[in-house]
Amino acid sequence: SAAAAAATSATGQVAPSTTAGCTPQPTATRLTPPPPQSGAADTQAPTTPGKPVIAICGNLFTVTWAASTDNVAIQSYIVSRIIGDVVYSFGVATNGWSTSGWYSYERIWVQAVDTSGNRSAMSASTAYGTPPSCPPPSMCTSGPPTSGPVDTQAPTAPGKPVVTVANGVATVSWAASTDNVGVVSYQIVHQWTDIVELVTVAAPSTSRSFTIGTSDTQHIFSVTAKDAAGNISASSGQTSIGTPPTCPVLTICTTSPPTSSAPPTSSGVSCAVTYTIQSTWPGGFQAEIRIRNTGTVPIDPWSLIFNFPNGQQISQIWNATRTQSGSTVTAAGLSWNRLIPPGGSASFGFIGTWTGTNAPPTLFTVNGTPCTLG
After folding, report:
1. What is the pLDDT of residue 18?
2. DSSP 3-state helix, strand, coil percentages of the chain (rounded to 5)?
3. Is pLDDT at 193 greater than 80 in this prediction?
4. Helix (H) or strand (E) holding 184
5. How many Cβ atoms are within 10 Å of 179's Cβ, its own excluded?
6. Are strands 372-373 and 271-281 parallel, antiparallel or unpaired?
7. Are 221 and 190 in contact (CB under 8 A)?
8. Model confidence at 263: pLDDT above 80
9. What are the DSSP calls for 2-31, one per residue?
10. How far from 22 is each of 40, 61, 97, 98, CA to CA, in Å?
11. I want to staple 290 with a disulfide (CB 3.0 to 4.6 A). Which of 75, 193, 194, 274 is the partner?
12. Please, are residues 125 and 109 in contact by the beta-carbon 8 Å criterion?
């Protein structure tokens, strides 16, 4: 409501109000991956969920949406949530979600996942509150330069993060980047379970603390630097703490471990690729690529090649390794997702930079075989 949006506390959270006729929804949960399918592979994605509807229910911020349908069954929904300069993606089991803490501006969209791991298209997004004057996760400046040469030199890569843990808090620190003009901020990518968190830290600070609790869940950190002209450095590289998952969340698990490290082969490969831009801001964007095995033989290991049409550059990546030469990107699976069984899928996400236009790639090959889109 307008009254709720206007009543903002010193911490940035909107003071709760009451809206009649709304029901509290489940909070976020870590979902159990679907079991391997038998028989004919299910490759039909669910329908797109409805646009989220946001309401203030007593002391809860509640989001609901029209449920998706599927030829077999819906297993879960992935909720993506932008809060200031942080982007969260997490799973819920029903078409609704509630939280007891919310902020003066949020943007939310959802995606459905069926029991075979097929994902729907992203829903339309719904915004709440007043957008910040400077789009996240960019750092605000006093304006573009009025004269002189344009700065196109990116900062050097930050040092690889050093992570220390005490009393459930992980402190991440890194060696500072250098730049021909000056570094204005650092962006930390923090990944755990099925959540990716992006946090911007203003320079000259080179550390940030995260509350992670006392479990042995794996947490992965990496850092990039940004200068006043918007140039972004190469990634620092990743530092991992905790125990890796035995099976990636929301991906079909297989009980058969990789049997060799032979180079990828195109023999018998049949594939489909979905490219989804999950959020965008001036000069940057977050995207996800999902590879489905539409053939009858496992793909082990997989190597995906594609070309950005507008010179986009990947600065951070998770759930895959990557090399980039000009506009050509090669991404490969990690030890736990390098095998894609028939009917199964593997996904990875990344942060990229763009100037002018951010059109999606149109041709993807897995192990040398062209894949269909969608």
Report:
1. 46
2. 0, 45, 55
3. no
4. strand 183-192
5. 21
6. parallel
7. yes
8. no
9. HHHHH-B-TTSBBPP---TT-------BPP
10. 41, 10, 12, 11
11. 274
12. yes
Token pair in block for residue 217: 């869940």
Phi-psi region of 146 (alpha: psi -120 to 50; beta: other; left: phi over 0): alpha
The token pair that represents 248 in the structure block: 């990636």
**pLDDT tops 70 at residue 68:** yes
Token pair recorded at residue 192: 């755990």
Instruction: Say if residue 99's pLDDT is above 70.
Output: yes
Over pLDDT 70: what percentage of the chain?
A: 76
Nearest in space to 195 (alpha carbons), one of 52, 82, 87, 316: 87
Contact 192, 186 (CB under 8 A): no
Beta bridge partners of 220: 191, 240
- Residue 280 to residues 87, 283, 286, 344, Cα–Cα distance (Å): 11, 8, 6, 28
Residue 297: CB atoms within 10 Å: 13
Quick: pLDDT tens for 268-325.
789 999 998 877 777 788 888 999 999 888 998 999 999 999 989 988 888 888 888 8
Q: Specify which of 4-8, 251-255, 332-336 reaches the highest per-range mean pLDDT.
A: 332-336
Residue 253 predicted with pLDDT over 60 = no
3-state SS, 40-108, equals CCCCCCCCCCCCCEEEEECCEEEEECCCCCCCCCEEEEEEEEEECCEEEEEEECCCEEEECCCECEEEE
> What is the C-alpha to C-alpha distance for residues 275 and 314, in angstroms, rounded to an integer?
14
- pTM, to two decimals: 0.49
Is pLDDT of 110 > 70? yes
Token couple for 31: 């979902």
Shortest CA distance to 42 belongs to which of 70, 67, 77?
Answer: 70
